[in-house]
From TrEMBL:
Domain of life: Eukaryota
Gene Ontology terms for molecular function: microtubule binding
Gene source species: Larimichthys crocea
Keyword Cytoplasm: yes
Name of this protein: Regulator of microtubule dynamics protein 3
Length: 251
């Protein structure tokens, strides 16, 4: 099957592996304890199914879940690095799988979260490349558009020092605008309304910085009515604090 000029390669597991992956997918949608159970389930079966691309990207995803579940910086660093290695292994199995590219991008970002500015800028370039590939392979994943929106927003709001560092690293440093960020966040919302409180807060923040105060207020109020879920992260509370001035409600 062809889509977006790229061939989609399907690898359909069967038997015990298919049951294991289905169980992993269910546990991934649960709370922190269920996510941890899913992580242990995959780790316990790594030796047997480590040759499967479908297994490996789920293991990378589980490392991302564990990263979010701990506050310890060293644990976060370990989960991110090990998850990145599993995501890279999944990509080596086959580079034409949207999930492999998505989770490689996610773990690339997480693995440099506590690194230097230069490391973050370098990883940002790789992250964007793999998100673009993921979207080219499957253009209906709201998480990819949310992550692209985050990338665009962060690039558009780089400070002077960060822009100088980016210019020193690349002949053509990354560029983006708040309009690009807003477009991606709105696409994520369109694909899955209420997908994430954070998406709606970023839509509000983009409108605010673009001077669209009425739209920003409406999106902030909508976001505050949206339950927090596993797609939200530490950015959620930061954005709420920044945007609460737009409403008369106490967050």
């Amino acid at each position: 099957m062809m889509k977006g000029g790229l061939q989609l390669v399907t690898d359909v597991p069967s038997g015990e592996l298919a049951l294991l992956l289905a169980q992993s997918d269910i546990l991934h949608t649960g709370d922190a304890s269920l996510k941890a159970e899913g992580f242990r389930l995959l780790l316990d079966n790594r030796a047997e199914y480590g040759d499967s691309r479908e297994f490996l990207w789920r293991l990378a995803r589980a490392y991302s879940d564990m990263y979010k579940s701990t506050e310890d910086k060293q644990e976060k660093k370990t989960y991110a690095q090990q998850g990145w290695e599993e995501a890279e292994a999944a990509l080596r199995k086959n580079g034409l799988n949207a999930e492999c590219h998505k989770w490689f991008a996610v773990l690339t970002g997480l693995s440099t979260q506590h690194e230097s500015m230069h490391s973050k800028l370098k990883s940002s370039h790789i992250l964007k490349e793999h998100l673009d590939r993921a979207v080219a392979l499957r253009d209906n994943d709201p998480m990819c558009f949310y992550l692209l929106g985050r990338w665009c927003y962060e690039v558009a709001t780089l400070d002077w020092l960060e822009k100088k560092a980016a210019a020193a690293l690349y002949q053509s440093p990354p560029t983006s605008t708040l309009h690009d960020a807003l477009e991606n966040f709105l696409k994520a919302e369109e694909l899955s309304p209420g997908f994430s409180k954070t998406v709606r807060l970023y839509i509000a923040q983009c409108h605010r910085e673009l001077g669209n105060i009425s739209e920003a207020t409406n999106w902030t109020e909508l976001a505050l009515k949206t339950p927090t879920n596993s797609n939200d992260d530490e950015e959620t509370s930061k954005l709420e604090a920044q945007l609460q001035v737009l409403t008369h409600r106490k967050i």
